Amino acid sequence: MIDFDALEEEIKKGKINNSYIFCGLDEELIKEGVNLVVNSVVDKSMKDLNYIRLDGLNINYDEILNACETMPFMGEKKAVVIYRAEFLKEKTDSSNSKLYKEIEKYLKDIPPYTILIMYYLFNDKRDTAKKNKKLVSLDKISKVVHFDRLKKDRYYKKVEEVFKKRGKEIKKIEARYFAEKVPNNFDIINREADKIIAYTEGKEITKKDIDKLVLKSSEDDIFDLIDLISLRKAERAIDLLDELLFKSDQHMLIITNIENHFKRLYEIKVLKNKGHNIGSIASKYKLPTFICEKLVNQSNKFSFNQLKEILDICLKTEISLKSSSNDKTMELELMLFNIFMVK
Questions:
Q1: Which residue numbers delimit the DNA polymerase III delta N-terminal domain (predicted)?
Q2: I need a labelling partner for 121 at 20 to 30 A (CA). Which of 24, 43, 85, 304 fits?
Q3: What confidence tens digit (pLDDT) does each residue in 137-157 have?
């Protein structure tokens, strides 16, 4: 398995494989990798004829076979891309399992004029290529590329390029500040950049603008944690809690943030019940509308009684953390368990 940097080096040297499996969390970065390979093998003037995209969510083996076996039109190579190839997921239904076995066999016999690229998006940041047995197996007959986080200098440079491509200048200091505030995911970065560009039309981008529009990463993590709670995904919620503690071993800060988030959801639910719209709620809390929309949607996943009971659990945990000598991590995990028991 290789990463994006290694893929770029291979492409520069003219080393092109007959097939690739791309994987990772960042679809925008994966698409960049796809374009890198496609543009290196398919003539731009023939792209409409020699570049085929297939939806991996709704695909069968015959469609893949027909796309790969057809000769390129007036060119030496053609590229076939299967995006969001769900059959590469480790646990799938019987039809996707059958398709995976057919693809695994076919990868050994792809025509020399076809470059097949398949990509699969991980569910969350705890997924890795090495944990997926299918990807490990395919790495023996294809080239598996894991699109992980970019190294700092390259990451900063690419963030600057995001703004430049949109015709907006951003100074290096502000670009780095923005890069540190947003998750290292170019799908999110593109959306956040669009909001900042729209907000700062006709003026320079400042740190104040970035602070106003971009959620802090810790707030993002808490939001994700509450989302997992609302979806009843206990194991993943525990994993994320452990990750938060690993990042910052501050149990009181985490319980306070969780408690404040649930308080905000309760207050928003009350305001919505009184007929307030998104705009008035956003104004009250001095939040950008898009953040307020997320919070309203999240508050809808809980009833008033559930939120009251959860807040009571948070308060008891906070008191326990302050007054007892018990294992603090265990206290927080027990809090999550009790929250999951709320009906």
A1: 20-146
A2: 43
A3: 999 999 999 998 787 788 899
